[in-house]
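Tokens as discussed.
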């Protein structure tokens, strides 16, 4: 019942269909229940007395009732399908809206593959169960209850046999349901793992093929697939074990009623037409029980899926809007300040600090570079500014206001960010660039493309800005993808522009031209860039050297070359490797 209570609000917009479906199936069931009584009249009166009038009247009435039953059944199926699909649509929307509010930490906690499974497979299972419940469950319960009552009115001595069989069936169904819930939950978890393997391979297919690791990945997939198959078999075998019990009860009940009913007919205590009707109603009761049992077992799986869906919907996002209203916020200037900032991944990490006691200021209009070895926390640092994660200690301030006090939309609206993993969406180049500013003019878009050194290659395509990009931008090179992402961020004209190693696939000459555009066209924008190459950062106003999550030095290129050993080592290692071209 808890599942039903949780789902009721999500029938919004489809409540009429949800009510009409069981109502119409009830009418259909009543019509079917009337038919055996009319047939009994034909046998016991029409045929027994050779009364053709009774036969014709009862036959015509049966035909009319059958047509009503068919119409109601068809409409019930239509409305049940509409209500269940509408419920699924509302659940998906609610779940997607909630996921859209999640921080990176929340998404890491669930994993993207699990969220996809919950939004597709889990909701489909709930849809199927609701459609089945609105029709089959209502029909079965109605048929079972009414047929049982009518059976007692026909001959209570035979109908009482049902009261012995029904508790046995109910106990068997209840026992199987208690065993199946945990098995269904485990099965859905195995689907998560299977989807993760598929997603991982589709995203990394080029790496798999380039390293000739297809056989290795096939084996990993086979293992995940076998795990899911085993989990599914464990659940299905529990359900299958119910079938012999149910069939034994149905067969035993039928034999007992036939034997005892035959004795009553031979003794003249029960007309044969009444026995025929009674047998029909008994079969309705027993078939109704079987259908209820199957629906309840499906309900058990839907309950496991429902738990997983509402686990997402009920999760409070780690990061929520700050308390300040628009009019309380400072003018957008671009000053970024870290005050004694520490950070650790509390949900998915080891619990150790990734960043410790960071203090620095990036003044409006400055270009601030962050350098350091792999894994020292450079990306983690810049992710704190737009609140993709929240600092676990100290304060991150934008224009002298703690970023936690900003409404998220306003905070992120002031920041342009080009992530380490560049993402382009299926659609045209124009549509991708206008993500930066949907209201930008054609001239502004062209200028942003020129500043990012993307204009020339865009115009080399037959359709220019209207060139269609495949999902993920796979039909452009890595360097072209990076420049498109930079152009998208620059079009936004942000107060703060964050570049997380976003020119790594661009040659040094092109990178120098992009940096030059920062100085000329983003004079008032604070640029925070992470780069591996010294040539990318040597002209920055301030360079921050990170080492093991702490600041190991701050200064210009010349200052750090004089007194910072870590920076010197980075410089000389690149110089010896022929990397530095500055």
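Sequence:
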């Amino acid at each position: 019942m808890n599942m039903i209570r949780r789902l009721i609000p999500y029938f919004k917009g489809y409540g009429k269909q949800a009510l009409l479906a069981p109502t119409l199936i009830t009418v259909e069931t009543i019509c079917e229940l009337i038919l055996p009584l009319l047939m009994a009249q034909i046998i016991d009166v029409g045929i027994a007395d050779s009364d053709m009038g009774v036969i014709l009247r009862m036959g015509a009435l049966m035909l009319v009732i059958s047509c009503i039953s068919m119409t109601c059944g068809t409409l019930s199926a239509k409305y049940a399908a509409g209500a269940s699909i509408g419920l699924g649509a509302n659940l998906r929307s609610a779940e997607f809206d909630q996921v859209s509010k999640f921080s990176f930490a929340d998404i890491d906690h669930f994993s993207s593959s699990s969220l996809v499974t919950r939004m597709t497979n889990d909701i489909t299972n709930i849809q199927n169960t609701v459609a089945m419940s609105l029709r089959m469950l209502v029909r079965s319960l109605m048929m079972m209850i009414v047929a049982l009552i009518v059976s007692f009115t026909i001959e209570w001595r035979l109908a009482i046999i049902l009261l012995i069989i029904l508790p046995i069936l109910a106990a068997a169904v209840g026992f199987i349901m208690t065993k199946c819930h945990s098995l269904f939950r485990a099965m859905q978890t195995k689907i998560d793992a299977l989807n993760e393997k598929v997603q991982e391979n589709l995203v990394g297919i080029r790496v798999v093929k380039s390293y000739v690791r297809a056989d290795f990945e096939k084996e990993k997939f086979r293992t995940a697939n076998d795990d899911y198959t085993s989990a599914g078999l464990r659940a299905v075998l529990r359900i299958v074990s119910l079938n012999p019990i149910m069939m034994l009860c149905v067969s035993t009940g039928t034999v007992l009623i036939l034997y005892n009913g035959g004795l009553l007919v031979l003794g003249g205590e029960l007309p044969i037409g009444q026995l025929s009707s009674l047998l029909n109603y008994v079969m309705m009761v027993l078939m109704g029980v079987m259908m209820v049992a199957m629906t309840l077992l499906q309900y058990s799986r839907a309950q496991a899926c429902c738990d997983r869906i509402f686990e997402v919907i009920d999760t409070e996002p780690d990061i929520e809007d700050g308390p300040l209203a628009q009019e309380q916020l400072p003018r957008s200037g671009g000053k970024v300040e870290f005050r004694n900032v520490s950070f650790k991944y509390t949900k998915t990490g080891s619990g150790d600090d990734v960043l410790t006691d960071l203090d620095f200021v990036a003044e409006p209009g400055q270009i601030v570079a962050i350098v350091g070895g792999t894994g020292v926390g450079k990306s983690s640092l810049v992710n704190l500014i737009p609140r993709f994660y929240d600092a676990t200690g100290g304060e991150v301030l934008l224009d002298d206001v703690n970023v936690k006090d900003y409404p998220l939309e306003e905070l992120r609206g002031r920041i342009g960010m080009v992530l380490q993993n560049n993402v382009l969406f299926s659609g045209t180049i124009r549509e991708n660039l206008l993500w930066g500013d949907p209201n930008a003019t054609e001239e502004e878009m062209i200028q942003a493309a020129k500043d990012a050194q993307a204009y020339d290659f865009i115009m080399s395509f037959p359709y220019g800005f209207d060139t269609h990009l495949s999902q993920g931008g796979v039909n452009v090179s890595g360097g072209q993808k990076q420049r498109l992402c930079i152009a998208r961020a620059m079009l936004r004209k942000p107060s703060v522009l964050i570049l997380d190693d976003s020119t790594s696939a661009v040659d040094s000459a092109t990178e120098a031209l992009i940096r030059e555009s920062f100085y000329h066209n983003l004079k008032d924008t604070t640029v925070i860039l992470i780069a591996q190459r010294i040539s990318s950062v040597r002209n920055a106003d301030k360079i921050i050297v990170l080492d093991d999550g702490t600041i190991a030095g701050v200064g210009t290129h010349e200052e750090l070359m004089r007194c910072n050993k870590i920076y010197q080592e980075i410089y000389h290692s690149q110089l010896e490797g022929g990397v530095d071209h500055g």
